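Justification of computing resources. Each target in the renewal requires a structure prediction run like the one illustrated here; the chain below, 92 residues long, is used simply to show the kind of job we budget for.
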Amino acid sequence: MAKGFDSNSNKKHIPTTENREAEDQLSKASARITLEIAQAIEDGKIAEEKAQSLIVNGQYHELYDLVGLHEREELEDFEKVMETIKRYGLRW
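Resulting structure tokens:
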């Protein structure tokens, strides 16, 4: 996430405490989910190319099933993380 800039403009914004807390939660969720996906790839549950394809195509629920993310909070966190990655053109 590009810190300090509004995604809809080039104007700098000052993050509020609430925004910082949300970014911290998203960052923690992102790290946890990335580790889960990496572990699933390492364990042979899913090929890296398949995981990337599912992310690019927005097929998160299929990826959840393959990786083993089934709890509601994990799914919501994962959706937020993937949408943020897509919004900012980041690579997973």
